[in-house]
Amino acid sequence: MSDPSRRGFLGVAAAALGGVLIAPGVRLIEVAQASTPAAAGGAKPAVRWGLLIDTTLCVSGCSDCVTACNTENGLADGEGDATRPQWIRKVEIKEIRSGRSASLPVMCQHCAEPPCVDVCPTGASFKRADGIVLVDRHACIGCRYCLMACPYKARSFVHQPLTDQRPDVPRGQGCAEGCTLCVHRIDRGQKNTACAEACTRGAILFGDLNDPASEIARRVQTLRTTALRADLALDPGVRYQGI
After folding, report:
1. Class of residue 170 by CB neighbours under 10 A (exposed 0-12, middle 13-18, buried 19+)
2. Does residue 31 or residue 209 have the better pLDDT?
3. Whole-prediction pTM
4. Residue 87 · residue 107 · CB < 8 Å
5. Domain 40-241 annotated CATH 3.40.190.290
């Protein structure tokens, strides 16, 4: 894991030196400032956006959330090339002892301790103050370390040239990408993700996990929920009910 105290020391050292040049026109002090809430689209550290997925309401064969995600973010829909980027996928699981099966959507889990951020050599993978994990396509060098580090297989890589992109969802060939929790919607003040909005069964709930008055926080506090690969202690922002 990365060491916050070490990052803090480097930031202070850069400030003391008046900024260390790391690229034409870019200094460490500027990079540090870019990670502040004010520069991150108004992200606030008091907020932690997340999803609660009720697997008892999610049915096998339904892919409304996948279709909505593809439409919202300008991804190709339907079956196709195995290398086609996919930000959310449906997974079927089965408990060996009881034989009980469940169908559930899996996407970037927006971990509090994201492995993708730890392994990224350029800082292209980063976590906002409000817990959303993103990729800066301008800093991504296409090394795909983040794809290998993600235990949820939630990162994709853009192999082909892109056309007809959504202006509010920038993407790029040669870059890693994944679920953004519809960050463009959040920064516009909208209150829901495309996947949650499209789920007519109410299996996906979006909200602020840190707000005790929010529906998602109340449910997480009162219902038995779990994290995928809880053994890794990554503290994901996506929780599951019924598995």
Report:
1. middle
2. 209
3. 0.81
4. yes
5. no
Reported as a single tens digit per residue, the pLDDT across 49-64 is: 999 999 999 999 999 9
Domain boundary assignment for the chain: 1-34, 40-241
Per-residue pLDDT tens over the stretch 198-242: 999 999 999 999 999 999 999 999 999 999 999 999 999 999 999
Cα angle: 191, vertex 178, 48; to 5 degrees: 40
User: What's the pLDDT score for residue 77?
Assistant: 63
User: In this model, does residue 181 exceed pLDDT 50?
Assistant: yes
Q: How many CB atoms are closer than 10 A to CB 193? A: 28
Judge contact between 147 and 108, C-beta under 8 A. Answer: no
Q: Which residue is listed with tokens 């929780």?
A: 239
- Secondary structure, 3-state, the chain: CCCHHHHHHHHHHHHHCCCCEEECCEEHHHHHHHCCHHHCCCCCCCCCEEEEEECCCCCCCCCHHHHHHHHHHCCCCCCCCCCCCCCEEEEEEECCCCCCEEEEEEECCCCCCCHHHHHCCCCCEEECCCCCEEECCCCCCCCCHHHHHCCCCCCEECCCCCCCCCCCCCCCCCCEECCCCCHHHHHCCCCCCHHHHHCCCCCEEEEECCCCCCHHHHHHHHCCEECCCHHHCCCCCEEEECC
pLDDT range class, residue 80, cuts 50, 70, 90: low
